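seq as requested:
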Amino acid sequence: MARKTKEEAEATRERLLDAAEAVFLRQGVARTTLEAIARQAGLTRGAIYWHFRDKSDLLEAMAGRVRPPLAELVESHCREADGDPVETLRQLCLFGLRRLTDDPRHRRVYTILLHRCERIDEINPAVSGQDALIREVLTLFEGLFERARAQGRLNPAITPRVAATGLHAYMAGLYSQYLREPDDCDLDQHAEALLEAFFGSLFLAPEGAGELPGRTV
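struct tokens:
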């Protein structure tokens, strides 16, 4: 019986998160009430408070469903790239873009986070969680760029920190533009070319293949 109760509670929690995702996407986060989410789920407001402290806690849990553990993701791609920091960066970015185009939930949640989530006091706790993830990603990128520089592969005109900031901003821009106007930012067809357009300014070609022009980000 205890197991069944736990399973039912988890099913209710997922039902509430699905409902929040639908209402946030339709109305925006600031204009969404807990009552609206409860109605969408066919549950009571009390059911929401059983599982979540408030709306920002609900938003953060909803976002958590599309965030794979970063350390595991990096380890997996680093292993697949035989430890090559440049290829690891490339594959991480490509994975993010492919997931955006292939996973409907990923698209819905990032549409909410990037285009339906106002940075106001009520939502600040959830926004802070997103900001913490951005800092983690920047640290990860910078570490990989540091390794590339140690191998003599990073354009000497660009520091690892600048490269990390530029890459994150570029990826955020691709996410935002694709979610706003997917026909004008065709990631299905051009994800690799769009990444290469940015990576080409960061890295030197392998020895013997000539060097890419030294441009700053």
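The chain has two domains: 2-55, 70-199.
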